[in-house]
Structures are given as structure tokens and as C-alpha cells.
TrEMBL record:
<dbReference type="InterPro" id="IPR017517">
    <property type="entry name" value="Maleyloyr_isom"/>
</dbReference>
<dbReference type="InterPro" id="IPR034660">
    <property type="entry name" value="DinB/YfiT-like"/>
</dbReference>
<dbReference type="InterPro" id="IPR017520">
    <property type="entry name" value="CHP03086"/>
</dbReference>
<feature type="domain" description="Mycothiol-dependent maleylpyruvate isomerase metal-binding">
    <location>
        <begin position="16"/>
        <end position="136"/>
    </location>
</feature>
<dbReference type="InterPro" id="IPR024344">
    <property type="entry name" value="MDMPI_metal-binding"/>
</dbReference>
<dbReference type="Pfam" id="PF11716">
    <property type="entry name" value="MDMPI_N"/>
</dbReference>
<protein>
    <submittedName>
        <fullName>TIGR03086 family metal-binding protein</fullName>
    </submittedName>
</protein>
Length: 202
């Protein structure tokens, strides 16, 4: 089941809020902690989130083709404020007229070609939902996406190909889950994560 293009902007806004609420609860002394993303400490993950927000905002405005715009996130002296600024930037870009049908060039997803805006925003939405779990489990706070966010993220995660997954990639290889596992477990497993200790059943 596809996410209707008129809904993806609102879903992304809510996912970005979910992520922002978790990021807002981290403490400075937690920044060196390892995260479920093997290559990143919490500091590195927050820098990645800032970079991705800035990159998607640039892509929405036709300037996403240069790889450097996806890697220049600067946390300065206040990582939370840096994230908030980047979230405001991408949130504004994603609400511009016609953005759903604009071509987004996403060099970190694939070389050459572009994605329709509604598809690219779906990628950002999925990243926000799942990286919220990465931050939450690192700092020991709840991760509680609602049923609609989880169901929508599952629909996208089910279409992420196995090709190109693994260490250093956006997602690790899929992990099996038992029959009857709750949707949040299935979502995390589809993206190579093992459910553990971030509140609720995940």
C-alpha cells in the first residue's frame, strides 16, 4: 500500500517532531555514547541528522546533486539547537508549492537520476522515524511512534532493497522477527535493528 502523496508531508512533519522531541531530551554528557548505528557515536548521529535535513532541504530546491551538501552539518556548541535549525529548514522546504512533484536528486541513495518529491520525502520520513529509535535507545528514553506513523514507515521499509545494505550503508541487512511480532519490531527488523529497551514493546 502506497502513502498517498497528499499525506506524506504531514507524516514527515509528525516524524520530524517525534525525532526532535527525542533529540531534545539528550544531555551533553551523552554525546560520546555509542549508538545502534555502528559507525556513529551520538554526536556523530546528530551530525548526520543535521546533514540529512540540510541535504533534503537543498534537494527540494534543486541543489541536492552535490554530495558535500549532505555532509556539512555543523553542530557548533549546541547540538540540540543545530538540529532544531535544520529541522525548521527542511520543514519549510517540504511545504513549498509543487514540492511533491519536483525532482529530488539524492546522491546518497543512488547515483544519477532523480526521485519525485513525494518519494524522496517518504525516504526522509522513514529516516526520522527510525533514527528517533536510534537516539532514544542510546539515551534511554521512550520511542513511541503512533500506529499511523509505524504503519506508514512499515510500508516504505518493506520496499527498501537488500542490495547495498550492510556496514557503512544507510541500513543494515534485514533481521528475522517471530510470527506475530508487533509492528514496531517488524519495522526495526526490516531496517537491520534489534528491538531493545527504548520504552514500550520496542
Amino acid at each position: 500500500m502506497e502513502i498517498h502523496k497528499a499525506d506524506v508531508q504531514e507524516l514527515d512533519r509528525r516524524a520530524l517532531t517525534l525525532l526532535g522531541e527525542v533529540v531534545g531530551r539528550m544531555k551533553d554528557d551523552q554525546l560520546p555514547l555509542p549508538t545502534p548505528c555502528p559507525d556513529w557515536t551520538l554526536h556523530g548521529l546528530i551530525r548526520h541528522l543535521v546533514s540529512q535535513n540540510e541535504g533534503f532541504a537543498a534537494a527540494a530546491r534543486g541543489a541536492g546533486g552535490t554530495l558535500s551538501v549532505w555532509r556539512e552539518g555543523d553542530l557548533g556548541g549546541d547540538p540540540r539547537a543545530a538540529f532544531e535549525a535544520s529541522a525548521a529548514l527542511v520543514g519549510e522546504a517540504f511545504t513549498e508549492d509543487g514540492v511533491l512533484d519536483r525532482p529530488f536528486v539524492l546522491p546518497e541513495v543512488r547515483e544519477g537520476g532523480a526521485f519525485p518529491g513525494r518519494v524522496a520525502i517518504g525516504f526522509h520520513f522513514l529516516d526520522c522515524v527510525v533514527h528517533a529509535w536510534d537516539v532514544a535507545v542510546t539515551i534511554g528514553v521512550p520511542w513511541e511512534p503512533d500506529e499511523e506513523l509505524t504503519a506508514a514507515a512499515l510500508r516504505i521499509a518493506e520496499r527498501v532493497p537488500e542490495e547495498g545494505r550492510g556496514p557503512g550503508a544507510a541500513f543494515d541487512r534485514r533481521l528475522p522477527h517471530p510470527d506475530g511480532a508487533p509492528p514496531c519490531h517488524r519495522l526495526l527488523g526490516l531496517l537491520g535493528r534489534t528491538p531493545r529497551g527504548a520504552g514500550g514493546s520496542c
